[in-house]
């Protein structure tokens, strides 16, 4: 049965490859998780470096952001997988190491700009007030500035997570066994492209939908208007068999 060029019975064949798609989903989620967590940590360091008044810290941080934001992620993946890692270790370390490293370095550049903008969006009087109380700069940044800025960073950081999840499909160019790779295998096996890639698109849509819901929860949880639910009063314990 055909519908808009789709063969409905083809989805039965795709179902027989369900284990390949499930494995691809886990690989996609693994690449995204490693790339995002590493990218956030590195992005925090680079973002703080861009705010530094010391040129030997500021200039390298700025060059890093300019390079990874100004070049395609696909080129970065190929450079890391075919040039950087083999030249350092003498051989490839596999698609997962190369792919997660490329995603991490790329995500760090965007996260650095998000963190820098979030910190600079706060009033300068916050830092001045903390310093006037004798608080060191690093302590004030850790206890006063970053907690407030983090609330403003959540929406763009969430968008970066969704973007990284979708960009992880580019890792298939180095033979990664991700979700898109599963679709390519099925498409090559049956010489049909509508159904396999439509299945991949629906699965990516489902993953981004779940991520969006999680991001909305975190955003509501850390918003200024969040009111925690009241705690139930603790029951008095009975000591020595006295009256309840």
UniProtKB/TrEMBL annotation:
The keyword Cell wall biogenesis/degradation does not apply. Residues 25-215 form the ABC transmembrane type-1 domain. It comes from the Bacteria. PROSITE patterns: ABC_TM1. The keyword Iron-sulfur does not apply. InterPro entries: AA_ABC_transptr_permease_3TM, ArtM/GltK/GlnP/TcyL/YhdX-like, MetI-like, MetI-like_sf. It is found in: Cell membrane. Keywords: Amino-acid transport, Cell membrane, Membrane, Transmembrane, Transmembrane helix, Transport. The chain crosses the membrane at residues 20-46, 67-87, 194-215. It is a multi-pass membrane protein. Belongs to the binding-protein-dependent transport system permease family. HisMQ subfamily. PANTHER family: GLUTAMINE TRANSPORT SYSTEM PERMEASE PROTEIN GLNP (PTHR30614:SF20), MEMBRANE COMPONENT OF AMINO ACID ABC TRANSPORTER (PTHR30614). This is Amino acid ABC transporter permease.
């Amino acid at each position: 049965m055909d519908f808009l060029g789709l063969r409905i019975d083809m989805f039965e064949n795709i179902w027989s490859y369900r284990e390949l798609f499930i494995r691809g989903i886990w690989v996609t989620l693994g690449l995204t998780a490693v790339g995002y967590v590493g990218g956030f940590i590195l992005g925090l360091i680079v973002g703080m470096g861009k705010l530094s008044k010391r040129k030997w810290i500021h200039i390298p941080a700025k060059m890093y952001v300019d390079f990874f934001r100004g070049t395609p992620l696909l080129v970065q993946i190929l450079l890391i997988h075919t040039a950087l890692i083999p030249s350092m270790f003498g051989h490839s370390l596999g698609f997962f190491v190369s792919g997660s490293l490329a995603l991490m370095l790329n995500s760090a550049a965007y996260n650095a700009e998000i963190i820098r903008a979030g910190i600079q969006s706060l009033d300068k009087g916050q830092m001045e007030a903390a310093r006037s109380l004798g608080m060191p700069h690093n302590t004030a940044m850790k206890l006063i500035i970053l907690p407030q800025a983090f609330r403003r960073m959540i929406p763009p950081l969430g968008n970066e997570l969704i973007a990284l999840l979708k960009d992880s499909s580019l890792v298939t160019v180095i033979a990664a066994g991700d979700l898109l790779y599963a679709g390519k295998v099925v498409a090559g096996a049956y010489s049909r492209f509508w159904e396999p890639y439509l299945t991949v698109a629906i699965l990516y849509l489902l993953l981004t939908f779940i991520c969006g819901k999680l991001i909305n929860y975190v955003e509501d949880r850390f918003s200024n208007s969040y009111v925690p639910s009241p705690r139930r009063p603790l029951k008095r314990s009975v000591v020595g068999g006295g009256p309840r």
